[in-house]
């Protein structure tokens, strides 16, 4: 197990380094000069040149990259040109908000998918099971931001029951915090729930056909009892894998949902950064997102190996 | 059973929070009289308007947090602020300002003539923006005594006092410029209380303010990147005011007079259809004139901007003293346009910023130009980065559309390297003599200059960008015209 962990860790570190190079290269070819944008339509060439020197964007790209990546390794994301404050601080501020958004969305998705998916599998021959299957198909086709716009229209604008957007920190007002997050959580969670429902359903169906389950039933357990006792752990393996992949999708969905609901998370920071060509900021946010996805995959691999010891040797 | 339990718990959570919503919505009514939330589209990246361009920072801070010696009134005139009065010498080169006594900065430091010398001196030495060149005319700034400051100009200039009412004239404390990007220190009626980046800025009333205390103890500026999200926030009570409506067709949502009010005024924003005077086909005056005749401005305004705004005809806003309605210079006349083109047809590049008003207007311009034989291929460019680079800096375009929001910005046509590539020395002469002459001469000369621009068809002026504010019914003191860089909160109140 330790050897397996070390291997996965090495892959994680190598991927991070590659991602760093790619992210930097993309930013370097992005059109638009940060100094020009900061000074706007009325800038003089001298002022732009001076600002370039101040930003350090007049140095050779390789020097800029080594400077930036070297800083990253020490946890220093640099100082934003545009906001003049440390990039790391700004990301830390926003990361918590996005994490709450994504984890809440995932929780709602699981609360929907596990019972509904299991139900649909157990009843896969009934009309109700088929109906659930069809409904989840529709749910998959709806993007999270569209779900968000619909939810705002119904629950905020029409019913006036929940706020249409905005974010209140938990420490300031827990009730307002929760009220503000219900609709964003639902827009991410409903769509993800539909996706996961299908995976849960097919995983449970697969397990139900296994010999050991038939044996358990032959020994006198009911269908649900056998599934509960012997099936769910096995069914969870493919679901955990998909969960990891979907968590990454949720992170991307969150970027868009943040815009619909005016939530100051990483997505908002990223869009600001791109518009102002705040390169260090954009690089920083993208790196954090990339590392988050890599970490999720790492955790999924470890979970996988824990759930099914046979896999440790195989990989 | 366990699963059913989960569903009940989840259902309870939703109902619970929804019920909460009803409760605190009612409670919010009393809290609102204490403060007011105003929605804006662009959040400042930092709070230092001496080194960062853009309207967002002075919009929030000028007049509210930073005060100048003078300020711009709603009618466009220069009014006293930190200077009680001023005297201009007969040769119109020396301005003697009498400062208000007993004014302090929010840091506690007193405001004296030393701060005037310091602040105006900093413009030339420390400011990074090009607008600082408006102070090139200043020869020296001196302190006579604690409440008297004297500014001497190199030559008479009508533009100087006006420039003093913009951000250039903002007064800074000698001990308050260490961290301008995050900690503004001014003498204004409000001070920065909190800044939640990506969300809002809260300004609280300055308890030691020298003048009339503002009606509202606190004002929150809420920032929205999405116009729909901002509209929804007003509909659901998340904000009280939309500072400037970005999509006039959405106004019908706020038609109920029992809940909302709409204020329409003017801005300094001329939405210009720029033509590249420096290259074919628009280096030919006849082709430019044909474009001006080919555009039906009334129809364009109705289609592209829901009829809000006002046709203008040249580069002057109606709040400037030298405004004249020049819309009759080139009336809509397809036959005349075709005659000017002499039967020739052209295909041109219309490179526009990806901003709502530009995209909407470009469609109409395209179809109207098509009727006289000019095919305009629309190419939207990301704003600001791509548009600035391609159109503004390299002038690689034939037609473009952009809202020039700076006040009294007719002078940009005097710079032949500007992206219009307009080159008429006579125009520059008119501007120079207007600045040095008396106020009456200024008005007369600038009228001539505006007429010259229009006659030359240096560009076409599609419309004057409207100032459209939507607010809850009880809000009073909204600044009708957006003619200063500042969104003045000092008169705002809520019943």
TrEMBL record, chain A:
SUPFAM superfamilies: MetI-like. GO terms for molecular function: dipeptide transmembrane transporter activity. It is found in: Cell membrane. Its main location: membrane. It is a multi-pass membrane protein. Keywords: Cell membrane, Membrane, Transmembrane, Transmembrane helix, Transport. It holds the Pfam family BPD_transp_1_N. Residues 95-300 form the ABC transmembrane type-1 domain. The chain crosses the membrane at residues 9-30, 95-122, 134-157, 177-200, 237-261, 281-307. InterPro entries: BPD_transp_1_N (IPR045621), MetI-like (IPR000515), MetI-like_sf (IPR035906). GO terms for cellular component: plasma membrane. The keyword Cell membrane applies. Belongs to the binding-protein-dependent transport system permease family. This is Peptide/nickel transport system permease protein. The lineage of its organism: Bacteria, Bacillati, Actinomycetota, Actinomycetes, Streptosporangiales.
TrEMBL record, chain B:
Transmembrane segments: none annotated. GO terms for molecular function: peptide transmembrane transporter activity. One of its GO terms (cellular component) is periplasmic space. Pfam families: SBP_bac_5 (PF00496). Residues 77-403 form the Solute-binding protein family domain. Gene3D superfamilies: Dipeptide-binding Protein, Domain 3, Periplasmic binding protein-like II. Signal peptide: none annotated. One of its GO terms (biological process) is peptide transport. Keywords: Signal, Transport. PANTHER family: OLIGOPEPTIDE-BINDING PROTEIN APPA, PERIPLASMIC BINDING COMPONENT OF ABC TRANSPORTER. Belongs to the bacterial solute-binding protein 5 family. This is Peptide/nickel transport system substrate-binding protein. It comes from Nonomuraea muscovyensis. The lineage of its organism: Bacteria, Bacillati, Actinomycetota, Actinomycetes, Streptosporangiales.
